[in-house]
Amino acid sequence: MNSSTVKSFAKKLACPSSNLLLSFSSQTLAPEINFLVKHHLAACDFCYCEIPLLSFYTSPQKGETRTPELPLNLRALAESILLGNRLARAGFAGVDGERGFNIIEAEDAESSN
């Protein structure tokens, strides 16, 4: 995947919320909203890929809210996209190795001194 493709693989302001996508996957939307989301999914790879991830978690009951934990591999991908080449400098080992944002910030502080 080239860098321009990676940069465009992101949630945009025009994208439906994660809650709306979850409602779409559980088929609880009004037909008009369902049509709009379906049309958006045909053009947005990010939202199309987000639905299986969201569907992996159970839907909250009415009035109940919970934020699912971010899967480790998705967190590592997000950090690599956000931090770019800084990961190679920091020797990023992923969440399992307890190396992530903290080690990068510490190494940046050392290099600026």
Topology of this structure?
Elements: H1 3-8, H2 18-25, H3 31-43, H4 45-55, H5 72-83, H6 86-90, H7 101-112
Helix pairs in contact: 2-4, 3-4
Structure report:
The chain has helices spanning 3-8, 18-25, 31-43, 45-55, 72-83, 86-90, 101-112. It has 113 residues and is mainly alpha-helical. The protein folds into 2 domains: 3-55, no CATH class; 72-112, no CATH class.
Shape: globular
**Secondary-structure-derived class:** mainly alpha
Mean pLDDT: 73
Fraction of helical residues: 55-70%
How many domains comprise the coordinates?
2
**Uncertain spans, ≥5 residues at pLDDT below 50?**
92-108
Characterize the largest beta sheet: strand count, sense, and whether it forms a barrel.
none
CA gyration radius, whole angstroms: 18 Å
Tally of DSSP β-strands: 0
| Proportion in β-strands | under 5%
Distance between the termini: 36 Å
Number of helices: 7
Q: Return the string of H and E elements.
A: HHHHHHH
